[in-house]
Structure prediction request, 94 residues.
Amino acid sequence: MISAQEAYRIGLVNEIVPAADLITCAEAILKKIALNAPIAVKFALEAANKGLETSQGEGLLLEASYFGLCAATEDKKEGTTAFLEKRKPRFQGR
Prediction:
């Protein structure tokens, strides 16, 4: 066990909030995540969860596989186009 301050110092966490503000802060982070491409969010969560049960090598292979799947989506094309056109993307989950 380490303190929150130590976790922040070593880069394990990027923010410390008072316990009373934890749910509000977590909900704000979730809203930001939800603005991203649904397929990418789904695979990121799956990679994080499945990665806990695998070796580092297997985890890296899983990440590469999910990256390949995401790179072939319409949402990836929309994200790139929106970035180049300096507008917010309109993800469809495809």
Q: What stands out?
A: The chain has five helices and no strands. The chain has a mean pLDDT of 93. The radius of gyration is 17 Å. The first helix runs from residue 4 to 9.
